Amino acid sequence: MKKITDFRLIEKKEWARSTSLLLQSDEPLEEIKAGQFVQVRVDDAQHTYLRRPISIHDVDYQNRTITLLVLRVGEGTNKMSDTEIGDTLNIIYPLGNGFTIPVETQNVASVPEMQNVAYVPEMQNVASVPEMQNVASVPEMQNVTSVPEMQNVASVPEMQNVASVPEMQNVASVLLIGGGIGIAPLYYLGKMLKEKGVNFKFLLGGRSKSDLIMLEEFASVGEVLITTNDGSLGEQGFVTQHSVWQKEKFDMIYTCGPKPMMMAVTKIARENNIECEVSLENLMACGLGACLCCVENTIEGNVCVCKEGPVMNINKLLW
Amino acid sequence: MVNETIKLKGLTLKNPVMTASGTFGYGEEYADFIDLSQLGGILVKGTTLNHREGNPYPRMAETPSGMLNAVGLQNKGIDYFVETIYPRIKDIDTNIIVNVSGSTIEDYCAVAEKVNALENIPAIELNVSCPNVKQGGMAFGVTCSGIEQVVTAVRKVYDKHLMVKLSPNVTNIAELAMSAEASGADSVSLINTLLGMAINAETRRPKLSTITGGLSGACVKPIALRMVWQVSKAVKIPVIGLGGISSATDAIEFLLAGASAIEIGTANFIDPAISVKVAKGIVDYCERHGIENISDLTGAMIVEN
């Protein structure tokens, strides 16, 4: 359910052009999917009338906090970045769809301990059951035995801790590609994938070292590969030029960043038949799917980035 | 207890606050934030005979205290509305009013006829003034003869409450309102968006794909208010005021200027719960001023001679 809530700024980190805001709600958080965003109210000045959409970087249900990474590009983002500890920001959340978390049960039958499980009818279509796609991120789902579809499966000892079956951990090899401030939503996505035991890497690119922030935090979640245009950190070049493309094969790519970067990544994904989701950033007004300003033209016509996005599978795009 | 009811011909509003077409989807999009039954009415997204894709992106630009839009009436057409959307929204406990648009008189009539058959739709808002449509919309709404033609034709096929939404991009809006009244309109709503534009100085390119677009938001309020006042003096049918309303005080100014009811549009983007806050605020104002019926505020502006 979407909510309008005041979040209090409790911690802040600042870099030259970006700021990390740790915001706390007095109420329990709504369920948030990796890839969703918020709309922040900034309207107390002439040139900041509409809310600003910002991706959700991190979520902590226990402490009722969300983290936003804000790049200073104009009055609205400057206002958000200049918020002081103790002040509140009025936020509408959670908005948009989220990244699709892979559920790799297609290879279940090839894992010896799992063979009898594959013949359980309910398990065969697990990946196609929407509620099952974000198993790890839905608190009620963490105790698999309570889900009706899974009940007979849970009695199979090997299924009780899927992530610990060694063959399952390498079933999906995933790359999370971020550019500039676009790295923001990939952090929480990485955490969700890690919880599910999915094998992934972060590939983060920027024009220069100073454009890349939160690298230590990303490294605590997963392996981080870096490119900078000027070579000041990591490999020199674009993310699409990193040496990892020569060394590894990937089953799935998630990407968020400048459109030209995402278009280049899409090209590689298509050429190599890799499943790929991008996160779009069209100019928005309502953020709720009501005004139809933020549309992206797709194979299904114009759809709202705020509602049928911001995450879209490349097979829907006309790029 | 303040009486909030507003009675229009064939259309009773439980309070004067409605939400403007193009800003509130079909109502469902805002159901998480407010109880829709607390609204006087919802003007749903502009509906045309055929499916329209609308204009290319970019379709919006923020402007000082406002925004420009060039959506271009994207909608899936009246048949999709009747078959798919109407069943979902018809039981919402408020007036669901369909905003009707068209490129030709035949199109307007075809849509109006289909909406006439829908039991739970008590009114249509005839959009003769959308400034983004290249063929038609604007043309009808800027001349008296254009208004006469379309309102007369639609009046023949639509027998419930016919509200005509006027364009402000005209020399004399009162005249156009009078034409609508003479042709059978039951009320007029104004204003639709003002024609405006914005340029990105760094890239030197227009911010909208269509170069010009419709201006809305707080910045248009003084113009909208003036036009409501002018029109209210010129016609006997009720006037519904909209344009930059984002508080109860704003709404009351429009009532005092002559409006019987108001619509809130762009303000919904900043605060999705604003509409019910305004409804409550109007009641608070009436309690403070000892006013028994909100309808007593219509045209109650005092001008000392």
Give an account of the 3D structure.
The complex is a heterodimer of chains A (319) and B (305). Helices cover 18% and strands 29% of the residues of chain A. Chain A contains 9 helices and 15 strands. Chain A is globular, with a radius of gyration of 20 Å. Mean pLDDT of chain A is 84; it is low at 105-171. Chain B has helices spanning 78-89, 105-116, 137-141, 144-157, 173-182, 221-234, 248-257, 267-270, 274-289; strands spanning 6-8, 11-13, 17-19, 41-47, 60-63, 66-69, 95-100, 123-127, 161-165, 187-190, 194-197, 199-200, 205-206, 212-216, 239-241, 261-264. In chain B, the strands form 4 sheets. An 8-stranded parallel β-barrel of chain B has the order 3-4-7-8-9-10-15-16, surrounded by 6 helices. A 4-stranded antiparallel β-sheet of chain B has the order 5-6-14-11, with no helix packed on it. A two-stranded antiparallel sheet of chain B has the order 1-2. In chain B, strand 7 (95-100), helix 2 and strand 8 form a beta-alpha-beta unit. In chain B, helix 4 runs parallel beside helix 5 (173-182), helix 5 packs across helix 6 and helix 7 (248-257) crosses helix 9. Chains A and B meet through strand 13 of A and strand 5, strand 6 and helix 8 of B.
In short:
The complex is a heterodimer of chains A (319) and B (305). Chain A is of the alpha/beta class. Chain A contains 9 helices and 15 strands.
Using brief descriptors, characterize the structure shown.
A: 319 residues, alpha/beta, 7-stranded mixed β-sheet, 15 strands, 18% helix, B: 305 residues, 8-stranded parallel β-barrel, 4-stranded antiparallel β-sheet, 32% helix
